[in-house]
Design a protein that fits this description.
Elements: E1 39-42, E2 48-51, H1 74-81, H2 89-100, H3 108-119, E3 122-124, E4 131-137, H4 145-158, E5 164-171, H5 178-191, E6 195-199, H6 207-215, E7 220-222, E8 245-248, H7 251-266, E9 269-273, H8 281-293, E10 298-300, H9 318-331, E11 337-340, H10 343-349, H11 351-355, E12 363-367, H12 372-381, E13 386-390, H13 397-409, E14 417-419, E15 425-426, H14 449-456
């Protein structure tokens, strides 16, 4: 296994408290950007002319906080999410407001500053702003491409706010000791962070330090459904009550969508399930609802020991995914379907089929992310009975977390669960782009190629 494949992904979420609904058949296009009516104004001579509003003047429900959901580029919405049905109004407005700031046409000075902030633990944004953004990742830029891109998206978002003068970042690099993850957040508290955005891989194990941040007046907002413990599990904090908010999909609905893909594609037979870091809320949330929604004829070969435990833990490390699939195929060579959050991890794991001389036939795969390594491999294999469905990479959700935190600091009421809608899409040959700057970067990322080239192009 080449070392570069250790740069995998994550990720990363449960909306169990929300009503679970199957989004697998959603086909509603993302809404068109609303237009703002020109305002009539009376001249000194008494005539009335139509004057276009100032282009930078926010409009709509978040205007008093400097955000404009209506300015979100429909093409960027479609790129990030696909043809989704919008979530609840409060959540959707924040999602759109965050995408509205995702300007893809960056000048060189902004790119240079973004790279400086991405490459160093601390950077001065150059705006003179008083606010300090804290970034606390359980993974890290050097160990996981998905985390690195999500970090960059948050940095690019922060650079659109002149109030943010400093960015301070920490990474636990998937350390197995929860104390390392706790210390990252503690460092940001001591550094005087105005707010903290991050992904809590150890969930409820971070509840104490997250509560400490909130008690100090530091909003904590996680992304990719990074709950500080899945609601309803032991030691979990409640978003919107114990910490500011979590951004991510309705995990139960996501899990049901995964189950529907397996039910339709496999019909009857065995399937395997993989996940990320042990017990993380993202994996646990969708796995719970996938398991409960599998049809009676679909048998999970590696069921979790109980309802509050994950199965197929891979830490989102590609070689671990390979080991897991190899072990399951050895005893269950007729597995007809796989479900996992992480496309690139499954790409590596499919080597087990080649090692064991098992053909990739009559196989249905349900995924969350969209790293094109797997998609290009699918094109190369050219097996018509092998089908892949995916949702979205979700890197941009870190942008939404930054915007949510900035809204919170201004006194806006934001939902504790900022729901990002999802839809399942079937992979086609068009999902393989041989000219991509880095084949492991999700195609749905909003980080522009000019930045990705600096990050990964050498």
């Amino acid at each position: 296994m080449k070392m570069r494949k250790l740069l995998g992904f994550i990720v990363v979420l449960a909306m169990v408290a929300a009503a679970c609904s199957d989004s697998s058949t959603d086909t509603t296009e993302a809404p068109e950007t609303p237009t703002t009516a020109a305002a009539p104004t009376t001249t000194a001579a008494g005539s009335t002319d139509t004057v276009a509003p100032e282009p930078d003047t926010p409009a709509g429900p978040l205007a008093e906080y400097g955000e404009d959901p209506s300015a979100a580029d429909p093409d960027l919405v479609a790129k990030a999410l696909g043809p989704v049905t919008p979530s609840d109004e409060a959540s959707w407005n924040i999602v759109l407001a965050s995408i509205a700031r995702a300007n893809q046409d960056l000048d060189q000075a902004t790119i240079d500053k973004a790279m400086e902030c991405w490459s160093n633990q601390e950077c001065d944004t150059g705006t003179g702003g008083d606010l300090i953004m804290g970034w606390a990742d359980g993974g890290g830029d050097s160990v996981n491409v998905w985390r690195g891109v999500s970090h960059m998206e948050a940095i690019l978002q922060a650079l659109t706010y002149p109030e943010i003068g400093t960015i301070v970042s920490t990474a636990a690099n998937f350390d197995a000791d929860p104390a390392v993850h706790v210390n990252g957040i503690s460092f940001l508290i001591q550094r005087g962070a105005s707010f903290i955005v991050g992904y809590p891989d150890f969930g409820a194990a971070l509840s104490g330090v997250v509560a400490e941040a909130e008690a100090a007046g530091i909003p904590y907002v996680s992304f990719s459904a990074g709950y500080v413990g899945l609601p309803g599990t032991e030691g979990a904090l409640t978003p919107g009550v114990d910490y500011t908010a979590v951004v991510g999909e309705d995990l139960c609905a996501l899990g049901q969508s995964f189950a529907q893909i397996l039910n339709d594609g496999v019909g009857s037979g065995s399937v395997g399930m993989l996940g990320g870091t042990p017990g993380n809320a993202l994996t646990l949330g969708w796995q719970q609802c996938t398991v409960s929604d599998l049809a009676s004829g679909v048998e999970l070969v590696n069921p979790p020991p109980d309802a509050n435990t994950t199965t197929g833990d891979t830490y989102w490390v590609n070689t671990f995914a390979l080991d897991a699939v190899r072990a399951l195929l050895t005893t269950n060579p007729d597995i007809g379907g796989w479900v996992y959050e992480y496309s690139d991890g499954l790409y590596t794991a499919l080597q087990a089929y080649d090692e064991l001389n098992i053909p990739v036939e009559n196989l249905s795969v349900a995924l969350r992310t969209d790293e094109q390594t797997l998609f290009c491999d699918w094109v190369d294999r050219n097996e018509p009975t092998y089908n892949i469905w995916y949702s979205a990479g979700g890197n941009f959700q870190s942008r939404t977390a930054v915007t949510a935190a900035m809204l919170k600091l201004q006194g806006a009421e934001i939902p504790g669960q900022i729901v990002v809608p999802h839809v399942m899409r079937q992979v086609t040959a068009e999902d393989c782009n041989p000219d991509r700057v880095n084949e492991v970067v999700s195609g749905t990322s909003l980080a522009p190629d000019s930045v990705l080239q600096r990050m990964f192009g050498g």
